[in-house]
Structure prediction request, 957 residues.
Amino acid sequence: MFAYITRRVLATVPLLVVALYLVHVMVSATTDPLADFRLCLPRCQDGFDQIVENYNLDVNLWLRPFTWFESALGGDLGRSESLGLPVTTILWDRGINTAMIAVPAFLVGSIVALLLSIYSARRPYTKGDYALTGLSFIGFAFPSFVMALVLQNLLAVQFENWFGVKPFNTGRKTGENFLELARDVFLPALTLIIVGVAADSRFGRASMIETLNQDYIRTARAKGVPEKTVVWKHALRNALIPLVTLWALNFSALLSGAVVTESIYSWPGLGPAFLTSIGEADVDLVLGIVIFSAVLTVAFNLVADVLYGILDPRIRFD
Amino acid sequence: MTAPLLKVDHLTVGFPSKAGVVGAVTDVSFEIHPGEVLAVVGESGSGKSVTALAVMRLHSKSTHISGSVMFNDTDLLALPEDQMRAIRGRDIAMIFQDPMTALNPVFTVGMQIVEAILLHHHDMTKQKAWERAVELLDMVGVPEPRRRAAQYPHEFSGGMRQRAMIAMAISNDPKLLIADEPTTALDVTVQAQVMEVLHEVKRATGSAIMLITHDLGLVAGSADRVQVMYASRLFETGSIDEIFYESRNPYTRALLDSIPDLEGTKDELHPIPGNPPSLLRPPAGCPFRPRCSMAIELCREQTPALIQIANSHASRCHRADELAVLAAGAPA
Amino acid sequence: MADTLMPGSQAAINADEMEGLSDKPKSFGRLAFDRFVRHRLALVGVFGLILIAAAFIVGPWISGYPFDETNVRDRMLGPSASHWFGTDEIGRDLFTRTARGGRYSLVIGLVAATLATVFGTLMGAIAGYYGKAVDAVIAQFINLILVVPFLLTLALFSLRFGSTWWRLALVLAALLWTRIARIVRGIVLSLKEQEFVMAARAAGASHMRIVLRHILPNVIGAVVVEVTLLVGTVIVLESTLSFLGLGVKAPDTSLGLLVSDAKSKIDDDPIRVLTPGIMIVFIVLCVNFVGDGLRDALDPKSKLEKN
Ligand SMILES: Nc1ncnc2c1ncn2[C@@H]1O[C@H](COP(=O)(O)OP(=O)(O)OP(=O)(O)O)[C@@H](O)[C@H]1O
Ligand code: SF4
Ligand SMILES: [Mg+2]
Prediction:
């Protein structure tokens, strides 16, 4: 098992290095941090030189990434010019903010999706199943920016108009105490939950239906196993196997920052930082976030594989 | 004669589909007596499994089922679900065709047997149940049963899995064991071994067996009575001798003709030409008519009824009486 | 000919093709068609798409406003008979603009999904068919695409090369072909070992011919479903990009951009956000209905519960 994990991690390192190199070159090639300064030369020669130095602009485009790799190996991911902070600090602070909505969204979303899948799969092609499937179709068709705007307007502005109270905050993390924080978190998390549940429950339903049609489920019923146990023990354990991979992907994606949702709710997470970094040609921050999300993806895929092995005795790590 | 253990009357099973109801079992009546082995044979799709699953009440809710299934004088079809569940696995147990898929891949074989035991022995401890599971595995011929019990199904070969399935099925000494093609999915050499185990089990427990199979060869050596199904209906029923040597039904005869001879005296095989009719909109008349070499005009117009021939012998054919004069083994 | 199959099967195939009654494919296609037509949601989807495409194409012609004509006197109007969806803050007719954006969504969706499918199918077929090093290289290439966040690539591309609709479609296709490639690769891998392909190879058919003639036709069912679903994905992605200001840019417009323009006024005028937003939802919903219908129609085992 340990050897397997080591091997997997080592296998992704070259891929990551190539990806980072290409991203660095791409960002340098497509953006010009000097754009503003060119106009005011020679008056602002100092600022110009400062930028050249910060971004290593005197180094050839194709060689520039190596300077970055050199310091990155020493644990220094550089400094974000646009936010004026070390990249590691930003990743840490913003990462925590993102996790504040990502963790509840993931937990609630996955559980709700699972429950709905089981509900639907136990009575496929009935009214209840059709209703849920219909809703998930609709939810799945909503781009998250539309969903976020609709929820924000409906549950905050209109809600206040109708009922005269404002139960949720609509933007920016204030968070003095837990209750305030919960009011802040609620709407962005809800957006992610609805969009996620719509996608997951269709997958979960298919997985559960397939499992419930398996021969061993019939065997269990023929033994006299109560229907509850058939579903929650015999079927669920098998249906979870494909879901685990989906969850790993979802969670790592959420933790890397929901760009649209966080931006709409002005949530100071990784998503808006990513947008800023692109807009401002902030190479170091771009690379920092790319590494962050890549490492998360690899890590959670590994977790998924390990869970896979625990759930499914047929899998061997060798 | 003793009272029947299982008495099925006018059982009819239909599956609703978008195009109409698929009549998988039509008006089937039969009995199984304690300790008896009843073989059910017939081509694929003739309704054998559907009959068995109806007895176990394992069809989905949307399935149309009518008739009655009396087990020891209780009508299983009318029983509330929790009482039916208590009967499943305890009084009636079932073995399925494909041992590769019939065991849950994520639980050990031992645990699956233990679960079967504990479901119907609420006061037994888990350790005792485990001991019993090991004993059962030993009884059905699984070598090193203690070690094997802790293994997962994928670590078992096909034949071993089917033995494990049998061990699980007999774990509560059922009065009736339904074996749905227990050997079809296995290698020829393993088939004989598994049948031997089933016989062993029958000798040891005295349970009645409903043996569903394609394989008439298998039937000859192991069954007391045979029941032939075709296109959702019972076509002939009788003792081994009545079916094998005095069959009064062209379909049974064609079926007999299509299997390799037991003694190896037959030089050619004669597969039955054509296919069974649609169960969605069955044609009028005898369902076997398009394939029957003895068909007459009447067969086109009228569906033959099941005609009593002897005490235990009945056949569904307009020409059943004429068939008496034709020597068996040389069907028209 | 170096690449003929065994004479018998070759003759048979040709005869079928000439008379157009190749029995098996036709009956399957027929069956699939019947199943699709019986799928109520799929029909709703097809109908909805035709309806909305017609509205987007014919509508502006009836409404009579160019999409970029400003009219300062008619600013910020609500929906009315002359301006069905109202006007924006410089008096442009919002229906005409929505229709223009909607046309972009549909066109970008179709073009990008088609390109992605063609490329993905080819790459998948090549990877699966040749295996070994070729397969490994393509796999790493796919991993590389997946490890870099899509948004980054899309944004950098649009910064560098601008964002006319066809360029946008091109990048989206360049990012979205991987899933189809993986699916096709899987199918090809399993087909490769099957008899008819072995036979063709034994008879000396060229690689290209085997791929084009024997493997691709078998892959089409799965691919058709994927394309449809991909159209939905592309439309969502495109609108999201435009919403973030990384896609179609002013003075031109798209559904995402219309939502973005309206969002600062959402508290006073939620309808203005909703109209383009609901358009996106409606289009994607219809596309997914069609995809679902196609899946049920083309995958014979999808609804047959076994016993
Ligand atoms: N759940 C179901 N839904 C719809 N049709 C079904 C279902 N189960 C069985 N059938 C149909 O009922 C008919 C009888 O099936 P059954 O499984 O009893 O055949 P069988 O005699 O056991 O054949 P085999 O020897 O292949 O097992 C078949 O035509 C089958 O397609
Ligand atoms: S009734 Fe007629 S068709 Fe049917 S089995 Fe008898 S002879 Fe053949
Ligand atoms: Mg069967």
